[in-house]
Amino acid sequence: MLRDPIGVSNLALATWLESFDPEKVRRALHWDRYEFAYPPIIVQYLHDRFGVAQAAGLHRIETPTNLWYFFVGVPSVMLLALAPFIAVVALAACPVDVRRNMVFIALLATCITGATAFGATGVVPRYLHAVAWLTVIPLTVIGTRLARSIRRD
Q1: Distance of CA 18 to CAs 2, 14, 46, 55, 116, Å?
Q2: Buried (b) or exposed (e) across 10-46, using 16+ Cβ within 10 A?
Q3: What is the span of the domain harbouring residue 13?
Q4: Which DSSP string do the residues of 60-114 spell out, in sequence order?
Q5: Cα atoms in the Cβ-side hemisphere of radius 13 Å centred on 142
Q6: Residue-by-residue pLDDT tens, the chain, 153 positions
Q7: What is the C-alpha separation between 44 and 74, in angstroms, rounded?
Q8: Residue 48: inside a domain, yes or no?
Q9: Residue 84 within a domain
């Protein structure tokens, strides 16, 4: 990072931008469900060390919601990646007396999203779950502001 900070920043930006590619997000969701084949050396290790005869699909849990609902979440991953920007927009829409709180939410969302982009090698949806509430609160502020402006008209 000290040698090439621009290169590291560009890599983080490219990683963050992958959050908006539906195919990459869908592939990442499959990885989050453990839908990948373990390398043969890992399968052998699990067999020798723990007596696991079949390691393929070891952690895979299939429930009705997991099979369908999980993959409907592709747009939500994209929304969560936008959490810092949503918080900044909400900062302009919120009342003056709560702006300090919205600044804190924007900074926290930026830190978490930034850490995800800088620390991951691709899209990792489970890392973005931490910003869910940091997205819902600003969206509520924006929605309230829009509803009030529509009601006045």
Answers
A1: 24, 6, 33, 30, 12
A2: eebeebbebbeeeebbebbbeeebeeeeeeeeebeeb
A3: 5-32+73-152
A4: ----HHHHHHHHHTHHHHHHHHTHHHHHHHHHHHS-GGGHHHHHHHHHHHHHHHH
A5: 15
A6: 788 999 999 999 999 999 999 999 998 888 877 777 777 787 788 778 887 766 555 556 677 776 667 778 889 999 999 999 999 999 999 989 999 999 999 999 999 999 999 998 889 988 888 999 899 999 999 999 999 989 876
A7: 34
A8: no
A9: yes
Q: Which uninterrupted H or E stretch holds 29?
A: helix 22-32
> Which of these, 32, 132, 28, 121, lies nearest to 80 by C-alpha position?
132
Around Cβ 75, how many Cβ atoms within 10 Å? 10
**103, part of any domain:** yes
Total structural domains in the chain? 1
What pTM did the predictor assign? 0.76
**Residue at 55 is within a domain:** no
Q: What would the two tokens of residue 78 be?
A: 């994209």
**3-class DSSP state of 27:** helix
Q: Which residues of 79-91 are buried (b: 16+ CB within 10 A; e: fewer)?
A: bbbbbbebbbbbb
